[in-house]
Design brief:
2 copies of one chain form a homodimer.
Chain A: E1 7-10, E2 13-16, H1 22-35, H2 48-54, H3 59-71, E3 75-78, E4 82-85, E5 90-92, E6 95-99, E7 111-115, E8 120-122, H4 134-139, E9 141-150, E10 153-163, H5 180-188, E11 192-203, H6 206-211, E12 219-229, E13 235-242, E14 247-253
Antiparallel strand pairs in A: 1-2, 3-4, 5-6, 6-14, 7-9, 8-9, 9-10, 10-13, 11-12, 12-13
Chain A binds a DNA duplex (30 and 30 nucleotides) through α3.
DNA sequence: TAAATTAACTTGTATATACAGGATAAAAAA
DNA sequence: TTTTTTATCCTGTATATACAAGTTAATTTA
């Protein structure tokens, strides 16, 4: 398979594309082609047989790459026809968002992340959203407070809570690539397997209204997340507050 | 494969389990076993090799069944270990919800659907959330208004909009099985391929507050959905208003 | 006893092959 | 010309096989 052996680097950590399985390389290639406009919305991708011939891969491997792209909402499939490119959104953190008044030909937005405080160690809140195990409670909590901005406007406030279980020197070392997940992967070999979330609408209190530069009592999207990791019993918790006056939170299901 | 040949019936329409592919039969069997408590949260399922021996299926077929169960959040997999049963939620329409104060051993809730009006034909709103094609605009709009209740409390208000394209006598015939999707599948061979949704928090206006039995200006979750169907160019649109004071909207991603 | 190795599991990745069934356009028949 | 049939290409389903790599427990070695 002739797909280019791109090397990704963040901080002291790097991994080669060649370490990835073939279906993921193909997945990334097609994703890049869609994002760069080689294939536009509504276009048919080459057929599975064509892709397997071109890239010298088995059709099953091609299908695995395509099914990941379906899962991520980049394409959808039509039996007898082929794989068709879906419309895309921009992502904000791990969410995608869309401006209300925008039409299809979106302009891009400048997304910034601001660290409100350095990561710090603290006790767990007594009224924590999820039930915690005694082990988690005893370990204490690493807390991150971040604000995500779109075009200079604060849109999302994110509190992340990590039980301090075998994570030496976490708070004293800076985040790699400004990303929590890159840091966990590189420094502690922790990967996220899946995430479970609960969403509700709440009224902004004084603190949240202030940080999101909106009025008190204005409706705010509150998302609570639990990330499951490859370390048995280690979960990461996140509490997100989104101002959806200008942007909505989008997702695709298949 | 010895899985029982269950027959599903709704209205005049019925299909046999034997019409389904093998991986879906296995998927449904395991799902039923999880929901009925044969496998509980945290349990290991039989290994892929065991399942393929037991059900006389190839391991690839078993893997396909399991990957669907992963996608739907029933299980997650751990390389080298096996497939592990996830915690489950109850579903409300196509959403799942969870009570805030509930712990793991949830009680079940009585879910009812109320049709606020008979389905009716109307014009499209000028300020419709999504851009409509001229064909859709010209066809007019079939509108459904439904209220979903949990334990007698109204929780979700659902407006569904369908372009009136080659759907003869839709408004004059009753819904099959009280379900829009069953009706579309049975009477018009229309299936949903995927769905795209946008979520935001809004303040309840008088109408929505009244129907959801809450106060004006209280925060409400608003979800706008576009369902893609197997008919080219036919989309179904839904506008959902959820009162999340007591319940949150949950989902799982992998 | 304690540490290291091995063996026996598990899921993940990849190939080869076959046929069913939907979609479409060309060819044949009415 | 219009309809029907056919051929072809597409994705969906299913089997068989092989090896890589993570996990665990038993076994061997120090």
């Amino acid at each position: 398979m002739y797909i280019q052996d791109k090397k990704y680097t963040f901080g002291s950590y790097s991994y080669k594309m060649s370490d990835l399985p073939q279906y993921k390389k193909l997945q990334h290639l097609i994703k890049k082609q869609i994002l760069s406009g080689v294939y536009k919305e509504g276009d048919l991708l080459p057929s599975e047989n064509e892709l397997s011939t071109i890239h010298e891969l088995n059709r099953a491997t091609v299908r695995q790459a395509l099914s990941e792209l379906v899962k991520d909402g980049y394409i959808y499939k039509h039996k007898g026809k082929g794989s068709i490119v879906s419309s895309r959104r921009q992502t904000l953190g791990l969410l995608s968002f869309k401006g209300f008044s925008e039409v299809v030909g979106q302009t891009t937005h400048a997304i910034k992340n601001k660290e409100l405080k350095k990561p710090y160690l603290t006790k767990w809140d007594d009224q924590f959203f999820y039930e915690l195990t005694d082990i988690e409670k005893a370990a204490g909590c690493i807390c991150l407070e971040r604000l995500r901005m779109v075009d200079e406007d604060p849109v999302m406030l994110e509190f992340t809570y990590i039980p301090n279980l075998n994570l030496p020197r976490f708070v004293s070392k800076p985040l790699i690539n400004n990303s929590l997940f890159d840091t966990l992967l590189n420094n502690y070999q922790i990967e996220v397997i899946n995430l479970e979330q609960d969403i509700r609408a709440i009224a902004a209190d004084e603190e949240i209204a202030g940080l999101l530069q909106t009025e008190e009592e204005s409706p705010i999207l509150h998302i609570f997340r639990r990330y499951r990791t490859n370390r048995d019993g280690l979960f990461i918790y996140s509490s997100l507050y989104c101002n959806t006056e200008q942007y909505s939170i989008g997702s695709i299901f298949n």
